[in-house]
């Protein structure tokens, strides 16, 4: 593994040993805390500047090499329409697999791996999600010191964004075949 792509060994060890439902990798974007299901997380790596790909939506910052595969990188600050943020030593990429596609999401910092009981998760109804323009929320958890927004990974990307990622990964697979 290159020095630019260092992983977080403690959290990645926890990821490898995860098996319970309702476990979430929690992270910060802007001032808010979010969680994503641990079972779709493949690895957490230090931020590495992606290679920009022309004609992609601004939310797709580019691509990186992850274990020999080229994967797209999504900037969550842009996705959540937050002001641009300077990446720092706490910025990480959470590598996830959604709908059979591997991609990375850039977050400001990793928080923890937490387990929530089903009763603790307050479901976000469709009307509220539509009003708040947060269709990608699965639910909310009110902890002692903050509210954590749990993301629905299957609604995180728009149809157009997912199609562009599919095209990017298919083009990469075609390139690999012609080079061999």
Automatic annotation (TrEMBL):
Keywords: Cytoplasm. PROSITE patterns: CHEW (PS50851). The keyword Cytoplasm applies. It is found in: Cytoplasm. GO terms for biological process: chemotaxis; signal transduction. One of its GO terms (cellular component) is cytosol. Residues 21-162 form the CheW-like domain. Its main location: cytoplasm. Pfam families: CheW (PF01584). This is Chemotaxis protein CheW. It comes from Anaerobacillus arseniciselenatis. The lineage of its organism: Bacteria, Bacillati, Bacillota, Bacilli, Bacillales.
